[in-house]
Structures are given as structure tokens and as C-alpha cells.
Amino acid sequence: MLYPQSNTYRQMLDLSGIWDFRFAQSEDEDLSSGFDESRPIAVPASWNEQFADERDHLGPAWYQMRFTLPWGWDNHEIHLRFNSVNYLADVWLNGKKVGQHEGGHLPFGFTINDYVQAGENLLVVRVDGQLAFDHVPPGNIPPGRSTFGGFLRNYPAAAFDFYPYCGIQRPVIIYAKPKGGLNNITVTTTLDGDMGILTINTDYSLSNAAVRYSLRGHGADISLDGGAEAQIRVPQAALWGPGAPNLYTLEVALLQDGQIYDFYSLQIGIRTIEVQGDRLLLNGQPVKLTGFGRHEDFPIMGRGLVPAVIVKDYELMHWIGANSFRTSHYPYSEQMMQLADQLGFLVIDEIASVGLYFGDEGTPRRLELCQQYLRELIARDKNHPSVIMWSIANEPDSNHDEAEGFFRNLTELTRSLDDTRPVTLVNRIGIDEEKSFDFVDVVCLNRYNGWYIQSGQLDEAIPKLAEEIDHYHQKYGKPIILSEFGADTIPGHHAQPPEMFSEEYQVEMLERTIAMIDERPYVVGQHVWNMCDFKTSQGVIRTNAMNYKGVFTRDRRPKMAAHKLREIWAKS
Ligand code: BDP
Known about the structure:
By secondary structure, the chain is of the alpha+beta class. The protein contains seven helices and 34 strands.
């Protein structure tokens, strides 16, 4: 799936702005032809923090907006693209149903030539963010079924630890492209000595067409005429990696009778990523990940796209010496991914399969959704050099008998869609028999020794964690990433000797944990939980409905631990 772009052959119109909004009066209310009474709402943004009431109202709700097509689009294919709507979206144009999409963090779109009209068009979207046991991620699950659905109920009752923000959370774009033009471009890169090899697959439906490929940058200026498949060899390739995010511009021109008919340009990084024994190799060299699990979360915007926050977060990650992050616990915006390529960050790209449990009638539907998310994610992110690994789940109940088949299926599906990147699953405390570690490539462990277990006792916690990590290493011989470790920390709360929730305790826990894993070369990654404090559901373990494990506050001010991490990571 190509991100829309404007050039001589393609045009796009961003529908961001103030739309009309109202909550549905009932489940079966039908406002698909439009409505008069409404309140204004910003798009993109979650709806929950925009109003003075109804924060926890998860829908359904109705959005509408009016637009007029730009001049000259008549002979083109016209597409409507939603970059992210959480959770369930139903779309009508001029009163006619265009389609539906389930799942909150991946783009979807429709060809709308049969729906648009000259003059004004009315776009109506019904969005439902209500939690349900057979959604992914799930919520409102029967008591006792999983960690978050246990006796400690949170509100809203998400089976995951972040606020279930709803709405049209990323831009809505209309774009026009030449009929039968470029639909898809897939680029993979390999190395032969210092020769970079690009293998390109292009999809289009125009007949009697040819394709001209041009690659420019870092001294290269290569043009090649071919068809849907091509290979470009780049002598003395400037490789992509953290610290040297070398990108080439690949231009793909679809030709008819020697004339350009359609055109698309993309940024390509030449790099390899592989697992060899218990190491992770980037461009053939062992790489160690430093960084964070994050969230797309900011006051008022909720999970809505805020370009300034994206830029700020990369600035802070650079300042602190991070080289990577995991898209915990759902795919991040395409803007975030494009900047990862440009700025040289390594990304573990995760679908929204968090809070998964087994043993009820929802499993088949949850599997279907995870499969759909993987297909959509890989279609969206396959060309990003920054993406070095696919994560198929965060902390599922993966010791359940049903889990093995479930995750084997997802692992195989991932490999069939992209065999160039390792696959991982992120395991949680208390899963003694992780069913997936036999078949995934990288062992990701979320561990809270010194927090949820051995609380307040770092002298006990660190050796226990070391023992467990060594056990996993011996058992599987695969690279290990400590994908979460951390401590809730109220900014400004101090204690000597350090105690839980104080800034000193967070510093000491992170410092001692990192010192321990730094002695183990097979621990190829350390991702602190979390980069920033973030909003979650109300519950007895979440003061102010916040998770305070950030090393930065929610408004991006450093806690003591941020300075400590900067000192530690500067040395590595
Ligand atoms: C882990 C989850 C993460 C939570 C974190 C925590 O993966 O989503 O926010 O614990 O409790 O279990 O802070």
C-alpha cells in the first residue's frame, strides 16, 4: 500500500480540520445520510479529551464533513484513505455505503469513483470504539480470564494498559491517480560484498506498459528500463543504519508509448538484518538496541497524530542515546515510520495484538483479526529500512494450549509475507512455558523484577532476572531483547534510601538492570518501559489514570532517570 503523494501525475487532498460530530442516541440509529445537530470535533484526534463531558464514552459516534473534488480529477481513479480510525469504521459517501473496516491503527481505503459527484460531497463515518472480548485488542472480557480482566477491574475495562482512545486519529486523505497506474511497489535489499542489490516488484494494471526505474543518491545515478520486476545493482552502496541513515531516492515511472503515465517516488535504505545464532546482525555486524517501548499519547490529542510531538520524541531519543523503539502496542503513524528511516532509528513493528487470552469462543475471530493486521502492517511498512523485526503479540497468555497453533500460524503468515526480517513475540512475567519461543527468531522478555515482583528489593530482583535470562538463553540459544523493564515514578518524589515511586528508585533499577544485561552479549536489546508517562484506564494501580513508568513526563520533561540513561547510553 503506497502512501499517497502529489506529483505531476497524482494529487492528494487532506481532509484534516474541524468536522461535525455527535454520539449515537442508540446502537441502531442511522445518520448515514447526514445530520443537522452536531458539535465540532478536530480530525485527526481522539474524541475523548476534546469535550468537557463524555471522556469515557467509547461510541458509537457519527462524524461528517463536506468536500468538493479538485478540478481535473474526473479521468482518474479516486481513492479515499483513512490512515487510522479506532476501532470500527463504517463509511458512507452521499448516503451510499462505501465500506467498513475493523482495527484501530492501520490505513484502509476505498475507490470512490462510483460514489463521488460534481459539486459538494457529504462524507459520513460511524465510529465505534466500544470494547469487546472478540476484538483485538480485547476489552470487557469476562472476569478472571486474564491479568487485566481479573478481580482488579479497570475502567474503561480494556484488557491492556493504555487508554482506549477512539475516533479518527490520523488524517483522512482523498487522492487521484491515473487509471490502471501504480498500485504497489515492493523493494527488498541484499548485499554482495559492497554491492547493494535492490529487488523491485511493481504492481499496475495498465496493459502494454513499461517501467523506468531510477535510483539516485550517494554518487549513484542509475536508470533501468524494465517491467514489473527489476533488479538494480549499486556498487559501493552507502548502507543504511543508525548514525548513518543513508537513503536513496527510487523513482518509478510507468510508461505508455514512451510517455510517462504515472509516477511514484520513494526513499530506500540499503541494509540487511538477520539473526545468526544468538546475535542480531545489521549489515553483517552485531547490533545492540537501546531505547524504549512508547505510546502514541499526548494530552488533549489522545492518540491523534501530532507531528510536533513526533519530532520532539525523536529529538529526545537522539539526546538520550536511543537507537531504537518498539511500536508498543500497535502500529504507529506513517509519519513516525518515515522519520525513523530519515533519522536512523531501528523499529520493532508490532501489531495491536495485546491482551490476548485463550479458551473462549472469541479465539477464531481474534486470530482472523491478527492475520488481517499482519497483512495490513506488512503491506504498509515493508519498504522501511528502519523496520528490522515484526512483533506478532505483546504479553499474550501464551502458555495456554491454544496459543501454540495460534502463534505458529501468525509466525508462518508473517514469514510468507516477508522473509527478510526476523519475527518475535513479547513474553510476560508468569508464562513459564512460552509456546512460541521454539519458532520465533528473537526472544523478547518484558520483566518487572523490582516492581511487580521482588518489589522494592533490587538486591534480590537483579540476580533473579539474570538467572531467568540465562535460562532462556540456554534453552533457546536465540538473541534476547529485554523489551520492557521499568518503575512507576512520580516526578519530583525523592527518597534516600531509594523507594518505589521515587526518582532515585527508577534510576537505580534501570542502572543496575542495564549493568547486568550489558555483561551478556546475547541480550541484544534494552528497551525501557516507557519513554513517557501515558494515560491509561482508571484503576487502583494507576494513580491519576496514568502509567508513570516514563523517563520523561507526559509533556516530555526529563526525570532523573533520563539523565542517567543518557550517561549510560553515551558509553555504549
Ligand atoms: C506490561 C505491558 C505494558 C504495561 C506495563 C506496565 O506490556 O503494556 O504498561 O506492563 O504494567 O505488562 O507498566
